[in-house]
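pinned: reference chain
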Amino acid sequence: MRDLPSRFLSISIAAILATWYLPLQITVGFFVPYLILELLGWFYMRRCDKRIDHRWMAGLLILAWSGASLFSMFMVQIWNVDGVAPKVVAFSGIATALIHCVMVRSTWMLFGLASAIPLIAGLLYAVVREILLTGTVMDALAGGALLTVMVAYLLRSMIDMHQTRVELLQTSERAQAASKAKSRFLAAISHEIRTPLNAIYGMAQALREDPEPERIEERSTLLLKASMSLKAIVDDVLDHAKIEAGRFRLACVPTRVGPEVSEVVEMFHMPAAEKGLALSLRTEGHIPPLVSCDPLRIRQVLSNLISNAVKFSERGRIDVIVRAEPDGEAVVFSIDVADEGPGLTDQDMEQLFRDFARIEREDRPTSAGTGLGLSIARGFARMMGGDITVASQPGQGSIFTFKFRAAIVEPSPLADASGGKSASLVGVRSILLVDDTASNRYVVRALLRQYHVELVEAENGQEALEALRQRDFSLVLLDMHMPVLDGPQTIAEMKQAGGRISQTPVIALTADAAPEDRERYLAHGISGYLAKPIRRADLLAEIARVVPPSSAEAA
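pinned: its structure tokens
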């Protein structure tokens, strides 16, 4: 109803002009009822804005029809006055009203048609009557054709305008929904990030200001747990963004699925025992010893499912069951995570895998987390040719089934290179660590301290090249972003130097964690890649992969 003032103004001008051609009582007789209808329409529109009701909508349509009919009859009365000017005034009035219907009232199609049809009928009546009274047959044909084209064009314009307005409205609603979702997401992420960050900040202060030897282990354990929680949140957000953008790619390598699953289950034995839950793992049927898959994503999906089972179960047991079914040269793994927790309703299961979904029920507290875990897990499962499904009933527990497809590969002597921590550094004598941040170098030093490997440090690529010219190294651990000479420039200089320097394996240690970053650095000629923050097991495995025992011993 934002156009109400302009309509009142235009109708008032039309009424003043009409007094020149019509008796005053006729003008007032049309104008006053029309004014009343407009005021009732304004009231109805305000009512509809507050509450959508079919009866009120029907009343609004009747008012629109009545107002347009009254105005159309008013213009026909002016048209019937002898002379050219009255017909121009009447035609202009009806044409203006029709344009108004197309431009403004097409948002609600029925409302626009209810206003337009009486106007079109009045126009047709006036023109056709005029042609029949004063025109010839050719005048009738020409007038009829022109009126048909005009009416068709107006109706087509009204439909197009309606579709455009509907699309704009839908786009606006989606934008508003996305904005609200973004706000909720940022609020949730802020809370989730600040929780482990508070623990890290607090424990770091406690270690510095009150270094009690007997509490160092307790505080360092809390620091580690909080750091892992913070990393999991960041990983969830980044993984979700990559999957949504279609940029995520699996890193498939020869993997022993059985040991991977066993290690994940072992991680949750203590949390389960603390809640009095029995956590068990069993294998049914034959499991191929080695398949090609992404072990990190398998662990991530399985960790999410077992973590949820432990979090939401207060009694009973949690069973992890692994099966494998042959499928040509591949195998389809099926891993069940069955718990005896509170179970899920049909409504819960409908929203379970949606982004940012968090199940809130009276019989249990709202869980912490970003609400992305299961959404990401299902995305990974589907990328691996499988899916995650759930079967559950309230009060009877839940069974989550994780399926994925993997190609069978033949075991090789190098397949066990990273089988144990000590084996992964067999023969590695010296490592050149290049990073401009002292804390990053300290972390790598701490991770490798127990393996008695000589670690030489450099703060940039220039210092690294000088160290490589002076002596041999088994490999180089190289940061990608440094002053003086960054990672890619250092690799280029090593290749240009030739000889033993160019043959030294390089593992990139970088905070650039996107899949395209890995491909970009591999294109520079690096031998391995690890995204920060770094786990000891991943570092050892990557060293074992790029520096086989034979070459390590030669170094």
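why pinned: The two ends are 83 Å apart (CA to CA). Residues 97 and 119 are 8 Å apart (CA to CA).
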